[in-house]
Design goal:
By secondary structure, this protein is α+β, with helices and mostly antiparallel strands. It has one domain. The protein contains three helices and seven strands; from the N terminus they run ββαββααβββ. A four-stranded antiparallel beta sheet has the order 3-4-6-5. A hairpin with a 2-residue loop joins strand 3 and strand 4. Helix 1 packs across helix 3 and helix 2 packs antiparallel against helix 3. The relative contact order is 0.22.
Length: 141
């Protein structure tokens, strides 16, 4: 907590982050990531689990591979799948960051994505700007 007098007013800032309904926020982020994967990859097998800690959002997605990607991997072309996934994230990062910003009401300052073909999993990592403040109380003197 910090306090400050300014123009006859005591300003008190409590720096404890707002406690949103963590479960509903993580569920909403997971759903948004699954929806984006379904739209861009045209399959609905992907599942997601999201974790939030301070300024970091991590979304772990499973069953991400399309039938075509499964075939490429079976044929020994897993590198081609990873290259395609990297290109995909480069092309769609604006949509992913917009979803996180819309749901968290915070700006995404960095976005990283990683993929693995065996098993077919991905990790979407978002760094957020400073945590929102819990309260800003003004007391007149």
């Amino acid at each position: 907590m910090t306090t400050r007098w300014r123009d006859g007013t005591l300003s008190v800032v409590v720096s404890t982050p707002i406690q949103m309904k963590d479960e509903s926020l993580t569920d909403a982020i997971s759903a948004a990531m699954v929806e984006l994967y379904a739209v861009f990859y045209e399959h609905d097998r992907t599942t997601a689990t999201t974790y939030i800690n301070d300024n970091i959002v991590v979304c772990v997605l499973e069953n991400i591979l399309t039938t075509g990607e499964d075939t490429l991997i079976a044929d020994g072309d897993g590198g081609e799948v990873i290259d395609g996934r990297v290109a995909f994230q480069t092309d769609t990062q604006d949509e992913f960051t917009a979803a996180i910003e819309r749901l968290t009401h915070r700006r995404v300052t960095a976005f990283l994505s990683a993929n693995q073909t065996a098993p077919g999993v991905a990790c979407e990592l978002f760094f957020l700007d400073a945590a929102p403040l819990a309260a800003h109380v003004r007391i007149q003197a």
